[in-house]
Amino acid sequence: MHEPILGVLCSGRGTNLQSIIAAVESGQIPARIGIVITDKPEAKALERAAAAGIPTCCIDRRACAAKQEFEEKLVAELKKAGVTLVILAGFMRILSPYFVRAFKEHIMNIHPSLLPAFGGAHAHRDVLAYGVKVSGCTIHFVDEGMDSGPIILQDTVPVLDDDMEDTLAARVLVKEHILYPRAIELYLNGQLEIQGRRVKIKN
Ligand code: GAR
Hints:
Shape: globular
Radius of gyration: 16 Å
Order of helices and strands: EHEHEHEHEHEEHEE
Number of strands: 9
Bound molecules: glycinamide ribonucleotide
Largest sheet: 7 strands, mixed
CATH architecture of the largest domain: 3-Layer(aba) Sandwich
CATH class of the largest domain: Alpha Beta
CATH superfamily of the largest domain: Formyl transferase, N-terminal domain
């Protein structure tokens, strides 16, 4: 059996990447991170990966004429690194069906709300504006829609009366850092079975 290889895609600071690196180092995640790719040269995730000795690559979206060119480069880098599971960790771009088909059922995303509520790029702002009392985070497989793929794991946090976007985000992030490594671990242990919209977790 070949060693599983993760490819992690990030756009910014990379704290979820950091939690995944820690879980690989502790042995919780039985895989190697083959490459970390960002769509922005200034993404702090690049420094985190380099500090952990992980190969990095930046494919600057702004330097690509079209989305197709950007995604072809992404797919090429991931394939070159031998990636078997793509991890979107704060990757703030919507991927087209072309990309999704290249790694069908082998792409996971984290989203900082309880999907299907509050998808999109401003989850915490939208949660506070709506006034719900509970929020959380979701790990899901990526399909061809936005934030719409089968849900693997979710966890909740209370929304407090005096919450601002940053305080809510910080509370959710604590859960994210536990949930994402756990979802990857379940996947790599062969414990996830997609049955239509539902993901069954086998013992
Ligand atoms: C995380 O909160 C993640 O859930 C969110 O971006 C943040 C990235 O933080 N993702 C999305 O909003 C996806 N739509 P990080 O770079 O520190 O991991």
